[in-house]
Amino acid sequence: MTIEEFQNDIIEEFSMYDDWMDKYGYLIELGNDLEPLDAKDKNDQNLIKGCQSRVWLVADLVDGKIIFKGESDAVIVKGLVALLLRVVSGRTPKEILDNELHFIDDLGLKQNLSPTRSNGLLAMMKQIRLYAVAYDRILEKG
């Protein structure tokens, strides 16, 4: 599936819920299903700056694709991490750079999160793009 198809699937999944309490519940459920990070990866180098809660994001280049792993110490934010990783993990750097992550806006997530969580979400998205830029340069150099 393409990044666009994954985003459309997520939008469809969230459309099943009528109110934001149910959507938050679904986010928490997604976060609970997220594979925990190894303790060694929960370090300052992998910590996302700009998040109120603690969020760690790890990216490894494997066979030309970026494999992301992440975790948070806050349940809703952990669900946001799970959503983002579902869309971008296993993608080439070019795929990530060539696609806008519009599902965040389409779901109304930014408007329905606290300002600090919304800023943290933007910080996570920025870090994902930075990893994609860095790995894209590595691949170009061969």
Describe the structure.
- This protein has 142 residues and is mainly alpha-helical.
- The protein has a single domain (3-141), classed as Sufe protein. Chain: A (Alpha-Beta Complex).
- It contains seven helices and two strands.
- The chain has a two-stranded antiparallel sheet.
- 30% of the residues are buried.
- The mean pLDDT is 94.
List the helices and strands and how they pair.
Blueprint: H1 3-15, H2 20-33, E1 55-62, E2 65-72, H3 75-88, H4 93-98, H5 103-107, H6 109-112, H7 115-141
Antiparallel strand pairs: 1-2
Helix pairs in contact: 1-3, 2-3, 3-7
Task: Name the assembly state.
Answer: single chain
Q: Under the CATH scheme, which class?
A: Alpha Beta
Provide the low-confidence segments as ranges. none
Quote the beta fraction: 5-15%
Name of the CATH architecture: Alpha-Beta Complex
Averaged pLDDT: 94
Continuous helix count: 7
| 3D shape | globular
**Named CATH topology:** Sufe protein. Chain: A
Look at the helices and sheets and give the structural class. Answer: mainly alpha
| Helix-strand topology string | HHEEHHHHH
Describe the structure concisely:
It is built from 7 helices and 2 strands. With 142 residues, the chain is mostly helical.
